[in-house]
């Protein structure tokens, strides 16, 4: 079916905020009373933190997490003065961040002893408490205080003076694998960390952790990829809807003969008569090149093998399906599933979304 547009050759990215709201509702149900605090780092996984944040606020989200200080400032500006959300900065208290954190009302997630020292010095200098969270490393070895460091700072009261610690958190490394014993080990260590901050709320689970047992949910959960349709087990989950749909028009339909070589190099030699469509999208638009051969697109009600991916175009096998230049092919969306494309490319759904290019014409469905 042909679709008119301002640029007939442009790929189109449709971001369905109603689908986002549906996924948020699913996660709220699964969280069973824990606060659902969306993770909107990397511009809401590339989908626009301004519009995504405002819609999630309308769906009752009151706390958010981002990675960078600049992301927090942008989200605060997008929410405006009437949406007084708590915005946590996962990078913590970076060098010189104090005035900017205070000006935008942002809450750093303190990740190290030097960050705690810098935050307490800033709080003392300005003469009023600084809201903060504390991240404790329970087994990812990536970010956060060790348990020994956490014990040390809580036993020496001056080391936290001037800080209003409202949240203690950690992050699971294997939550997508429910039977992995690493999960239970991290839970045990997090219970130790939580006991060191008895007045603070606790958070351990991100998207996949929400779908583990209730023991992992605590007071607040931090979904990211599952808000946008990625399955918590890194496979498609029918409970969640696709938020992003990437579609692109066919440029040409070609008949290949046995012995023809498709694309660069000589590895893809055509063994039999094959009808293909050349589509106006490529790895510039976020269709990962490594997915060729294993991924599929969606055209005329069926999956179509993705044969090659170049910078600005790709080729799919279409058999005898009626197709013509100008017809649109779904490359990612409710039929060309996010987790399937990620698996075909040997990556995760998070990377697929953040690689979606700004070149595609963007349309948002559903407002805040």
Could you characterize the architecture of this molecule?
With 368 residues, this protein is α/β, with parallel strands linked by helices. It folds into two domains: 17-228, TIM Barrel (Alpha-Beta Barrel), CATH 3.20.20.10; 244-365, Lyase, Ornithine Decarboxylase, Chain A, domain 1. 28% of the residues lie in helices and 22% in strands. It is built from eleven helices and 16 strands. The protein has helices at 17-31, 41-45, 49-58, 69-79, 98-104, 113-126, 147-155, 181-196, 207-210, 338-344, 349-354, and strands at residues 12-16, 35-36, 63-66, 86-89, 107-110, 130-135, 163-169, 201-203, 220-221, 244-256, 274-279, 296-299, 302-309, 314-317, 328-332, 361-365. The strands form three sheets. Strands 1, 10, 11, 12, 13, 14, 15 and 16 form an eight-stranded mixed β-sheet that branches. Strand 12 (296-299) and strand 13 form a beta hairpin. Helix 1 crosses helix 3, helix 3 packs across helix 4 and helix 7 packs parallel to helix 8 (181-196). It is elongated, with a radius of gyration of 23 Å. It starts with 11 loop residues before the first strand and ends with a strand. Mean pLDDT is 95; it is low at 1-5.
CATH level 1 class label of the largest domain = Alpha Beta
Arithmetic mean of pLDDT: 95
> Percentage of helical residues?
25-40%
Q: What portion of the residues fall into strands of 2 or more residues?
A: 15-25%
Decide which structural class fits the backbone. alpha/beta
What Rg is obtained from the alpha carbons, in whole angstroms? Answer: 23 Å
Rounded to the nearest angstrom, the distance between the terminal CA atoms is: 30 Å
Number of DSSP-assigned strands: 16
């Amino acid at each position: 079916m042909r679709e008119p547009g301002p640029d007939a050759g442009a790929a189109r990215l449709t971001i369905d905020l109603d689908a986002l709201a549906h996924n948020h509702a699913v996660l709220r149900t699964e969280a069973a009373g824990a606060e659902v605090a969306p993770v909107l780092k990397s511009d809401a996984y590339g989908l626009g933190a301004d519009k995504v944040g405002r819609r999630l606020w309308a769906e009752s989200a009151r706390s958010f997490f981002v990675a960078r200080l600049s992301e927090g400032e942008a989200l605060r500006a997008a929410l405006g003065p009437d949406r007084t959300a708590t915005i946590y900065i996962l990078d913590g208290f970076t060098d010189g961040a104090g005035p900017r954190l205070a000006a935008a009302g942002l809450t750093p997630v303190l990740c190290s002893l030097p960050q705690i020292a810098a935050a307490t010095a800033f709080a003392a200098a300005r003469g009023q408490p600084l809201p903060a969270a504390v991240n404790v490393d329970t087994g990812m070895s990536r970010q956060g205080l060790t348990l020994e460091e956490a014990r040390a700072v809580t036993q020496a009261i001056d080391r936290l003076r001037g800080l209003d610690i409202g949240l203690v958190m950690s992050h699971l490394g294997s939550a997508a694998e429910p039977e992995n014993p690493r999960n239970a080990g991290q839970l045990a260590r997090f219970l130790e960390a939580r006991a060191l901050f008895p007045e603070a709320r606790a958070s351990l689970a991100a998207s996949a952790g929400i779908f583990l047992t209730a023991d992992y949910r605590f007071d607040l959960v931090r979904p990211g990829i599952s808000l946008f349709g990625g399955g918590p087990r890194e496979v498609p989950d029918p409970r969640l809807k696709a938020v992003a749909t990437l579609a692109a028009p066919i440029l040409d339909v070609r008949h290949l003969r046995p012995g023809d070589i498709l694309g660069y190099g000589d590895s893809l030699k055509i063994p039999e008569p094959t009808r293909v469509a050349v589509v106006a999208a490529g790895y510039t638009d976020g269709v990962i090149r490594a997915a060729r051969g294993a991924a599929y697109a969606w055209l005329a009600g069926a999956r179509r093998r993705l044969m090659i991916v170049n910078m600005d175009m790709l080729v799919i096998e279409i058999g005898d399906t009626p197709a013509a230049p100008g017809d649109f092919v779904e490359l990612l969306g409710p039929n060309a599933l996010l987790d399937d494309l990620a698996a075909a490319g040997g990556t995760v759904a998070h990377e697929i979304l953040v690689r979606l290019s700004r070149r595609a014409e963007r349309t948002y469905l559903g407002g805040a």
